[in-house]
Design a protein that fits this description.
By secondary structure, the protein is α/β, with parallel strands linked by helices. It contains 12 helices and 14 strands. The N and C termini lie far apart (about 95 Å).
């Protein structure tokens, strides 16, 4: 009796062990123990562990001192790096997927990115710059999606650098805001930058400069087993047919048309156009109605002064005649990018609000006109960078700019690189202009300098001398 019971228990344990080794964490399919152990001990995977331990540990340590949403988004950041490690191990045991199978392979990483983006939505938090810096930086982990020069992505090393440039815009705002308030926030901002530059960039450069390494003899990505989910709800119904499919076009043609489509259908049907119109009698004409005297009341005048439509045109981001990039009427767009540009082209930004534009490459000149709460990150300009009729703009120069002019603008933050410290800044009819320059040390704090907006003019020796007003306190 006891021998039979022991045998049944051993059989049950063996079945449980076989089920538990069939699937890995996060629903990632597991492989045989020897193959997984070999992949996990690969030098590239061990180096990724060292990257997480050295750089991610510093970010987490600073976040724990801050707490709140900063710690929450840092935990998501840690989760994203852990998922990337799992994907790197999985890639060493999987054949290179086709373009259709790649999104499914990257699904675990995409889910973490969606989770991070959710933290920046809703009411704006006091730690919004922290959340955006961490969330935007996660796009650097997408280097693992590089499958070749024709995939539409930059090379992995360049992709990491370009992705961090977008996140750095918000990271610099954290450094400026907390440089004299709380050193823990400054430490967090510096640590997250070093996580990517040089951390992730140097890692990719050393181990995956041409993208992830796939297994030539591994299992096809499409043939990998899927983890069972006991008690999971039924799958959702299939999506509707494509708008361009023949079935949908047939179905739509059988339905009655609505709106203007119905009007044009009626006109083209061949019936008399006036057959459905009512005849207007004399008492219905406006000139014969007592309630239509033609005198406009004061209330009606007031209403006519406020237009019921927006004068702003449609949003644009396009290259015109091969020489001029036009960015117009962009509202709430945080990831506008111009990357295919040259030194003979100009960039004109007009009527944008609460948006961020990144210009990657050297252009002839850049003009920002009538924009509100607009951020611009650019590399180099040959002639000048101009800001006109704006309110609350932030500009970051990562390369060089001979001249920066600010005209009729209220609220302007200029971030200069070491290469652009010799730029000439001209201001007119503007206020609240601050210029931030990098510190003397590589890890030093940014120095903030406010440009004068009040001047004293005195007549001496036959001419006027102008000096800025200096305020001193006792």
């Amino acid at each position: 009796m006891e021998e039979k019971l022991v045998a049944r228990l051993e059989s049950a344990v063996a079945r449980l062990e076989s089920l538990s080794t069939g699937f890995g964490s996060r629903g990632l399919p597991a492989f045989d123990v020897d193959t997984t152990a070999a992949a996990s001990s690969d030098p590239s995977i061990l180096a990724f562990d060292a990257l997480i331990s050295q750089y991610m540990g510093r970010v987490s340590s600073a976040a724990e001192k801050i707490g709140g949403q900063v710690l929450e988004v840092t935990n998501v950041l840690q989760e994203a790096f852990n998922v990337q490690k799992e994907l790197l191990i999985k890639a060493k045991q999987t054949q290179k997927p086709d373009p259709a199978g790649l999104p499914e392979f990257l699904k675990p990483l995409n889910e973490v990115m969606v989770k991070a983006n959710a933290l920046t939505e809703g009411r704006r938090s006091e730690f919004f710059n922290h959340l955006k810096s961490a969330t935007d930086s996660l796009s650097a982990l997408a280097w693992i999606a590089f499958t070749g020069k024709d995939c539409g992505m930059s090379m992995p090393i360049a992709h990491v650098e370009e992705s961090w440039q977008m996140a750095e815009f918000y990271n610099n705002k954290v450094l400026v805001e907390y440089k004299s308030k709380d050193p823990n926030h400054v430490e967090w901002a510096k640590a997250i930058k070093e996580l990517y530059l040089p951390g992730l960039r140097d890692y990719v450069k050393s181990h995956y400069p041409l993208g992830p390494v796939w297994s030539a003899t591994g299992k096809p990505a499409a043939a990998l087993p899927k983890a069972p989910t006991p008690g999971a709800p039924a799958p959702p119904p299939p999506p509707p047919a494509s708008l361009f499919s023949s079935e949908s076009s047939q179905a739509s043609s059988s339905r009655p048309k609505e709106g203007m489509a119905a009007v044009f259908q009626e006109i083209s049907s061949g019936k008399p156009v006036t057959s459905g119109l009512r005849k207007v009698t004399d008492d219905m004409k406006t000139k014969n109605r007592a309630d239509r005297s033609g005198v406009v009341s004061a209330g009606e005048k007031g209403r006519s002064n406020s237009p019921s439509f927006s004068k702003a045109g449609p949003p644009k981001l396009e290259l015109q005649v091969g020489r001029k990039w036009v960015v117009e009427n962009q509202i709430g767009k945080k990831q506008l990018v111009i990357d295919d540009c040259d030194s003979k082209q100009s960039v004109y930004v007009y009527g944008c609000k609460e948006s961020v534009l990144q210009i990657q490459g050297k252009v002839n000149n850049i003009t920002i006109d009538k924009c509100t709460k607009m951020g611009v990150v650019f590399t180099d300009v040959v002639a000048a960078f101009e800001i006109v009729n704006c309110n609350g703009v932030e500009v970051q120069c990562q390369g060089s700019a001979p001249t920066i002019s600010v005209d009729n603008t209220t609220g302007c933050q200029l971030y200069l690189s070491k290469e652009s410290l010799g730029t000439s800044i001209t201001t007119a009819k503007s206020s609240e202009i601050n210029v931030l320059v990098p510190g003397a040390e590589p890890d030093g704090d940014w120095g903030e300098h406010s440009l004068p907006q009040q001047f004293v003019h005195t007549f001496k020796d036959g001419h006027f001398e102008t000096t800025p007003v200096s305020h001193t306190g006792g």
